[in-house]
Design a protein that fits this description.
Radius of gyration: 17 Å
Strand content: 15-25%
Number of strands: 14
CATH architecture: 3-Layer(aba) Sandwich
Number of domains: 1
Largest sheet: 8 strands, mixed
């Protein structure tokens, strides 16, 4: 089975957390074709705060000025390298390969709008490159910085990149590993399963906001894209032991989002 796993930046802050997730994903990689996409939002916020740069969000997406974009370039490379090192620890041969969009043309992007500054929306992921890495027995690990047709660099939301990769890679399952138990309902209860229609209602009613709004929008994009093979999106707690195997199977963990 093909799967795309997106790891939230909050889960990558410590070496222990990175190594624990790397072990679980490596175990799954033995029997599944997996692409990893990762965020670094929490690390970027700390970098910006340390340098006296303001952070603002619109609909769960970070407004990216030229100063913020400079921080994006620094933080994305560092977090990608740390995660790749965790995957490759104790490996006799190279297993994980860091694929920064900036360096390898992983995803084509277009600007999302002037109110967001240098924020790009992915429009096409490089499926051939992903398939090649998998055939070589290597695990692609994607950091989300992109370029448009004119060579302008953009900050790209990792949830959107994961959805774009899932479509291009024809992944059956898209998994978001995050720092919350799953999607919360109107009374803050964990929702075990929701349809695309229910997910849209959570967004429209402002029950799902911020980062969860961005995840649900990405989930809807992956599920509804023409020709997609993605049949299920799982939003699950990445700090739960065994979360990767559970999300790949039919075990009750987090929230499963399907078309119906």
């Amino acid at each position: 089975m093909k799967a795309v796993i997106k790891i939230g930046g909050a889960l990558l802050e410590t070496r222990e957390s990175r190594e624990a997730l790397a072990r679980e994903i490596k175990d799954a990689f033995a029997s599944h074709d997996i692409v990893v996409v990762h965020g670094w939002g929490k690390q970027l916020t700390k970098h910006l705060t340390d340098n006296g740069i303001e952070t603002k969000f619109v609909n769960g997406l970070r407004v990216t000025t030229k100063e913020v974009l400079d921080g994006v370039k620094i933080v994305s490379k560092r977090v990608n390298r740390e995660l790749v090192d965790a995957f490759n620890a104790d490996e006799p041969t190279l297993l994980a390969v860091g694929l920064e969009i900036l360096g390898v043309g992983m995803v084509d992007v277009v600007p999302m709008g002037p109110e967001l500054g240098y924020v790009g929306r992915p429009i096409n992921a490089n499926a051939q490159l992903l398939d090649l890495q998998i055939r070589l027995g290597q695990l692609p690990v994607i950091a989300c910085v992109g370029k448009d047709a004119n060579g302008q660099i953009y900050n790209v939301n990792a949830d959107q990149v994961a959805a774009s990769c899932a479509q291009a890679f024809q992944a059956c399952k898209l998994i978001f590993l995050t720092d919350v138990p799953g999607v919360a309902g109107p009374t803050n209860e964990r929702l075990q399963h929701i349809s695309a229609e229910q997910a849209q209602r959570l967004i429209d009613s402002a029950v799902a906001t911020g980062g969860m709004q961005a995840k649900l929008n990405a989930a809807l994009s992956a599920l509804s894209a023409m020709g997609t093979r993605t049949r299920e999106v799982v939003i699950a707690p990445g700090n739960r032991q065994g979360v990767v195997a559970a999300a790949l199977a039919d075990v009750d963990i987090g929230t499963r989002v399907t078309l119906a």
